[in-house]
Amino acid sequence: MDPEEVILEAEEQMENALAHMHHEFSTLHTGKAPPGMVDAVLVHVTSYGTTSKLRDISAITTPDARCIQIQPWDRNTLKDIEKAIQTANIGLNPSIQGTVIRIHVPELSGERRKELARVASTMAEQGRVAIRHCRHEALEPLKKAQKASVLSEDQLKRYEKEVQDLHDKFIEQIKVALAAKEKDLTNAS
After folding, report:
1. Are 43 and 81 in contact (CB under 8 A)?
2. CA 124 and chain centroid, separation
3. Which of 37, 73, 81, 129 has a 20 to 30 Å separation from 49 between CA atoms?
4. C-alpha–C-alpha distance, residues 133 and 131, integer Å
5. Count of domains in the chain?
6. What is the pTM (predicted TM-score) of this model?
7. Per residue in 157-182, pLDDT tens?
C-alpha cells in the first residue's frame, strides 16, 4: 500500500463524483432547450425488443432556444420514443410531426424555478456525500498502515491532511457550482 497511490486514487474518485454532479446539473433546464435533457432517456424499442438511450437511436438537435427536435434513425421507433419521453417524468410533452419529434420547452414559472433550485441543492448534497465517502475510503488504508507500523504517526497526520485538503477543495468546487446553478435557475429568463 503506497500512500501516494491512495491519495491519487481518492483524488480521481472525487473528480468523478464532481463530474457526475455536473452531469446531473446539466439535466436541469432553465427554460432553454439543451439536448442533454433527453439524451439519456431510456427507450424500449418494441420492434427490436431492446432498450437504448435516446442519443443512441436518434439525432437530437435544438433548432431554437425553446425546442428540442429528435430525428430517430428508424422511423418505426417514433411512437416508442414519444412514450419514453412522456413516462420519463421530466416535465416535457413530445409531439410527432412527420418523421421527427418536437418538444417545446415551456417557460419556467417562479415556483418551478425554486423547485429546480431545491433539486440542484439535493444533487449537490449527494455530491458532497460522495466526496466525504471518498475521503473515508482513502483514510481507512492509511490508518491501517499506521496500526501495522508501516507509517509513523507523523506520516499518517501528513497524509490525513493531504486527503482533507483534497476533500475541502472538492467541497468548495461543489459549493461554487451549486451557487452558479441556483443563480442560473432562479434568474434565467
Report:
1. yes
2. 10
3. 37
4. 5
5. 2
6. 0.67
7. 999 999 999 999 999 999 999 999 98
